Amino acid sequence: MKSNLTNVAECTVPEKILLAALELEEQGQSPFSAEALIVASWQKFPKTFGLKGYAELYPDSNKVLSSIMGVRGLAGRGWLTKMGQKLYVLTRDGRQLVRRLLSDGTMPPAEESVKITREQEKYLNGLWGSTAVEKYNEGRKQEITFAEACSYWGVNEAMRGDAVNARLDHVRAEMAALERLLALGDTALTNGRSVSLGDVSHLHDVNSYLEERFARHLNLLRSRVARP
């Protein structure tokens, strides 16, 4: 969608930050870090978010952080949702506001929204809250332990062959079902987070990485024979 340059130039500071947040998500960064949002906001609007006297060289992180935090901040207004330590995503309301800013001044038709079950929402929140996903998103995937991967899959290290395979198959099946559903449109969770196909595809990437990295560990579990 092409932006209306006049509207963008007249945006408030919080609105400019939301525009930068949308660009991050479109680049596949979901959730995105506060640091990434600071840099993206400055790169998009250097005069607004540049450090005084050095606007073209350095961002002023306080200008962005002060707009995120607090009761009147972007998270407090329900436009961003905090997903972890300094990790955020746009909410459905936040996306709608950005779409309005990028329009010609009229509100475009609302995006198609699909419904997911309460169990699917609980499953997604469980994955996003896992240590494995947190470390992966923070660029610390080499620090993920096998125990943390097992927690992501719902695998108990005492499990044997068929039980391990059944859990891994369940994870893949859940993600495949969500991907088929979200291919029809985004959904909004009860906490306000807007979830897209890309969000679930990212979890799929995490799963593939964990299965590949811990393949030897999984094979050891599969090869164990239960004692009579």
N→C terminal distance? 64 Å
Q: List low-confidence stretches.
A: 1-6
Shape: elongated
Number of helices: 12
SS class: mainly alpha
Give, in order, the helices and strands. HHEHHEEHEEHHHHHEEHH
Main sheet: strands, sense, barrel: 3 strands, antiparallel
Radius of gyration: 20 Å
Instruction: Tell how many strands the DSSP assignment holds.
Output: 7
The spatial strand order of the largest sheet comes to 1-5-4
Question: Beta-strand level of the residues, as a percent range?
Answer: 5-15%
Mean pLDDT: 83
What level of helicity do the residues show?
A: 55-70%
Task: Describe, in plain words, how this protein is organized in 3D.
The protein has 228 residues and is mainly alpha-helical. It has twelve helices and seven strands. The strands form three sheets. A three-stranded antiparallel sheet has the order 1-5-4. It has a two-stranded antiparallel sheet with strand order 2-3. It is elongated, with a radius of gyration of 20 Å. The N and C termini lie far apart (64 Å). The N terminus is likely disordered.
